Amino acid sequence: MQRANPESSAAVNNVSSINDIYNFLSDYAEKLMHDSRQTILQTFREPTEQFHYHNYQSMVDKLKDLNKKYPNITSLYTIGKSREQRDLWVMIISDQPLIHEAGEPEMKYIANIHGDESVGRECLLLFIEYLCINYGKHDYITQLVNNVRIHIMPSLNPDGFEYEYAQNVHAQGLGRLNAHKIDLNRNFPHVDLEYFQEKIDVIVPKQTNDESKHELEPEVRAAMHWSMVYPFVLSGNLHGGALVANYPYDNRVKDSKEHESKSPDDRTFQMLAKAYSHVNQIYF
Question: N or C terminus of the chain with fewer C-beta within 10 Å?
Answer without folding.
Answer: N
